[in-house]
Design brief:
The complex is a heterodimer of chains A (about 325) and B (about 180). Chain A is of the alpha/beta class and about 325 residues long. Helix content of chain A is about 45%, strand content about 15%. In chain A, helix 3 runs parallel beside helix 5, helix 4 packs antiparallel against helix 5 and helix 7 packs across helix 10. By secondary structure, chain B is α/β, with parallel strands linked by helices. Classes of the chains: A alpha/beta (about 325), B alpha/beta (about 180).
């Protein structure tokens, strides 16, 4: 089972024969004991600290299809090293493109993404509503809005509804989360603890979706709900919509309400709020544990991890665009 | 269109798998079984490479169809093809793959070639020969595969026991349980 490695300590990562060697370097420039990471065990790397590496290491990672995701000092996602595509299917690429250029086909997929995301948001709201957190206003409003998803006849209109749903959904966070105020969603920079967590964990969710897509024949830049971007892999954004409520938001509620992450884990400035390294480590650890948790999959009839669910979503998309089976977004049932 | 021995093998297991594979939708990288088979191939007969050669064959079947095959171990002295497989679960498909190789040799004017199908794990070996009827059957099969692959429609899934061990299993069976919609 391959796993993610999260690098917090500054140091040097290099290729040593056919394995990876990491030598930590402290503030004074003193090298610590090397750690060895067998390359077969690596799914991907996350670089949070200062990472020294040379092209021979990247060539090695590229050959092994291992991506590296970079985050700057303020835990902003800055970009990824994505190895060359290794799963190419002209058939899938053409079909995927046709589903984008054909307006009705594109809208249908986009509507399904929004409907899946909305279903998963409602699931969260209802869960807390049953636990003495009154989210009835948001539930009613979102149910009303979600009935309009299928009546939209353009992506812009759909995006408008999606935006309203999300604003309504975020307005329940202050009810759901104890002891922290979120207020409105603010991004660059996040203005408070909840916003800081949302930004950080959503970018983790994005990289998760990006890697899942990379290991299939789908093309990461051809998306349906989001405008296919330049400078970003917009299909990963589409996919992340579905999983953010299940993976990111539920994790945020747990981290704060169970006091795993506390006030002391944040660095609050005049108009910005960032996670300290202690907080970042806690978040990443919980995130990684969450991804390996399993649920009983109803059609595969076996336990699958949350991480694998994202991959299954990619498979379902492949089937949809090849006209094998209509895509139904993943909706949590628990 | 190129039709190779792998596609002939897959066609006898599952038309959908054959279609997906031919269209570049590959899943081998996700499958431990496939990886295991690859290792087995490399480890089973370490000394074999000395006396055997790898050989690639092609034959023009028609204006549209070119047949290709890559034999890992060919013993030219004994005119014998060795094909190693992990398990005999899909033995019929393996046999047709071997017969396809023999047929390719014949189409290239090399007759009296035989194949030995080897299952190192269970220590079984099967000798494979090509009959006149087999050649006719293969010729028809090539036509069927050609028509299958020309179609834009992916064949339905099998829904058989064997699906559980297939590297495409999660692709085929990943649909949502619609009762939740």
């Amino acid at each position: 089972m391959k796993k993610s490695y999260y690098l917090f300590n500054p140091g040097r990562m290099s290729r040593k024969d056919n394995t990876l060697q990491f030598i930590p370097v402290d503030a004074a420039g003193i090298e610590g004991t090397p750690k060895y990471i067998p390359v077969e065990s690596v799914a991907n790397l996350y670089a949070f600290g200062a990472l020294d590496a040379n092209s021979s290491m990247y060539n090695f990672l590229g050959k092994e299809q291992i991506s590296v995701h970079f985050f700057d000092y303020h835990e902003h996602y800055t970009g990824s090293f994505m190895p060359k595509d290794y799963l190419l299917s002209g058939k899938v690429l053409i079909a995927q493109t046709q589903h984008y250029t054909h307006q009705k086909k594109r809208l249908l997929l986009a509507q399904k993404f929004v409907s899946g995301a909305t279903g998963n948001m409602l699931k969260n709201l209802k869960y807390y509503h049953n636990r003495d957190k009154d989210t009835s206003i948001q539930i009613d409003r979102i149910e009303d809005l979600s009935s309009q998803i299928w009546e939209t006849d353009s992506i812009e209109m759909l995006m408008g509804i999606e935006g309203n749903i999300r604003i309504t959904y975020y307005s329940s966070f202050d009810t759901i989360i104890n002891d922290f105020e979120m207020g409105i969603r603010s991004k660059q920079p996040p203005s408070n603890e909840v916003n800081a967590l949302i930004s950080f964990i959503n970018s983790l969710c994005y990289t998760l979706c990006l890697d899942a897509i990379y290991h299939t024949q789908l093309h990461p830049t051809i998306s349906f709900l989001h405008q296919p971007g330049f400078r970003r892999y917009s299909l990963a954004l589409d996919l992340a919509e579905i999983f953010k409520p299940i993976l990111s938001d539920r994790l945020i509620f747990t981290l704060l309400n169970k006091k795993i992450v506390t006030k002391g884990d944040f660095d609050i400035q005049l108009n910005s709020c960032l996670l300290k390294e202690s907080g970042r480590k806690k978040v990443v650890k919980s995130w990684d544990e969450r991804l390996s948790e399993t649920i009983m999959h109803r059609s595969l009839k076996r336990n699958v991890s949350y991480k694998h669910l994202v991959k299954l979503e990619c498979y379902k998309l492949v089937k949809h665009i090849l006209d094998m089976e209509g895509y139904q977004p993943f909706k949590a049932w628990w | 269109m190129h039709i190779n021995a792998t596609l002939i093998n897959l066609y006898h297991i599952c038309a959908r798998e054959c279609w997906l594979h031919a269209n570049g939708i590959r899943m081998e990288h996700t499958s431990d079984t496939v990886y295991d088979g690859k290792l087995l191939h490399e480890m089973s007969y370490p000394l074999r490479a000395d006396r055997h050669t790898e050989i690639s064959l092609t034959a023009e079947f028609s204006n549209e169809i070119v047949l290709t095959g890559k034999v890992d171990f060919y013993d030219s002295k004994a005119r014998t093809i060795h094909e190693t497989k992990r398990s005999n679960k899909t033995a019929a498909a393996h046999e047709w793959q071997c017969k396809f190789y023999i047929w390719l040799f014949a189409l290239n004017g090399i007759d009296d070639v035989q194949a030995i199908l080897e299952y190192p794990k269970s220590r079984e070996r099967t000798n494979i020969f090509l009959s006149e009827a087999d050649s006719v059957y293969l010729s028809n099969t090539v036509d069927e595969v050609y028509h299958l692959l020309r179609s834009d429609l992916c064949p339905p899934r099998l829904d058989e026991k064997i699906c559980k061990h297939c590297s495409y299993h999660d692709l085929c069976y990943s649909g949502e349980d619609l009762s939740s919609y």
